[in-house]
Amino acid sequence: MSLLEVRDLQIEYASARGPFKAVDGVSFSIERGEIFGLAGESGCGKSTTAYGIARLLRGAARIVGGSVRMDGVELTKLSDAQFDAYRWARISIVLQSAMNNLNPVMKIKEQLIDAILAHRTGISRADALRQAGELMELADLPKDRLERFPHELSGGMRQRVVIAMALALRPELIIMDEPTTALDVITQKGIIDKIVELKRTFGFSVLFITHDLPLMLEICDRVGVMYAGRMAEIAARERMLAGARHPYTQGLLRSFPSLTGPRVRLEGIPGSTPDLVAPPSGCRFRDRCPHALPVCGSVQPPVQAGEDGVVSCHLYAKEDALDEAAAAGS
Ligand SMILES: Nc1ncnc2c1ncn2[C@@H]1O[C@H](COP(=O)(O)OP(=O)(O)OP(=O)(O)O)[C@@H](O)[C@H]1O
Asked: Which GO terms describe its biological process (predicted)?
């Protein structure tokens, strides 16, 4: 059984122009010890998916369908109190800005101790302080920083503190949403190397979200590519590097410099993402797709799962699947 199974997840926002699904039937799974990446252009629903899993959706957002199972337990059905037992202990989250994770008026020491004491019963404050020191060591942070306030640390150090906090209760899944985007390249590299090293040591899984596709392909075991609220393709890192199947993934890969290949002119993807309040019928990528077929305008591409991963594109649809989708759409 996979550690996390997301099936047909649907998340809706209310907006002045009417409700829209920012996540519309997304499915993927994360194995134990795996780093799974979510890629796609801004607004495709990566963060909303992550927040839905971690129950961090606020205000106008709600899950309107689908399932999120961890170790077989349906998380969407848990009460807030039951979910609290999962948060930090089994699922923790690292956001882009460390200041969104840290309390600016509390010393680092107090925040780490609070994180430990909040979820562990029968542990003394002295033990929690000792553990806080160990967490600082794990994240390669000098222990004297325990006595500092967040604003007294550099951005990179703050993000290391957040990673240390996320590890405090040894969760099985850490959701990282753009964890290094706000940092310079050198600091970013140090933190990414640390995350990979800690993952090897502790064996947790990571749901990793970034705009930086080359970085994603460097560290993720598998990558899911979202487009306009739907999953376009899921493939192992090696498969993606050897050549993606979905025309959207191909376009996305051509928009970034290659890690290893020859230097080529970078191409963007012409056009823009569709309006989610009134999405087009059929394939949502069809207006930007260089290979669009007549069927793409009317029939939603079936999800095809096989040895190469998952792809949702009519170019790969077997005839019987196409017939089924046409029948369902008519
Ligand atoms: N709080 C909100 N209220 C209304 N709409 C929202 C809210 N948050 C996100 N959205 C909309 O939901 C869609 C998905 O946004 P989301 O942030 O999940 O995408 P993303 O792929 O993570 O983008 P980015 O990479 O820019 O963070 C977008 O159309 C966005 O404008």
From this structure: peptide transport
pTM for the full model? 0.91
Handedness of CA 43, 248, 51, 97 (dihedral sign): negative
CA distances from 154 to 55, 56, 158, 188 (A): 29, 27, 6, 12
Residue nearest to atom 4 of ligand 1 (CA): 13
pLDDT (tens digit, 9 = 90+) per residue, 5-21? 999 999 999 999 999 99
Question: 43 CA distance to ligand 1 centroid (A)?
Answer: 5
CATH superfamily of 4-90+171-329: P-loop containing nucleotide triphosphate hydrolases (3.40.50.300)
For residue 73, what are the β-bridge partners?
70
Q: What angle do CA 164, 165, 169 make, to 5 degrees?
A: 100
Taking the centre of ligand 1 as the mean of its atom positions, its distance from the CA of residue 130, in whole angstroms, is 40
Residues 177-201 have pLDDT tens digits of 998 887 888 888 898 999 999 999 9
Does the interface predicted TM-score (ipTM) exceed 0.90? Answer: yes
Using the mean position of ligand 1's atoms as its centre, give its distance from the Cα of residue 80 in Å.
23
Q: Where are the beta strands (DSSP E) in 117-251?
A: 173-177, 205-209, 222-227, 230-236
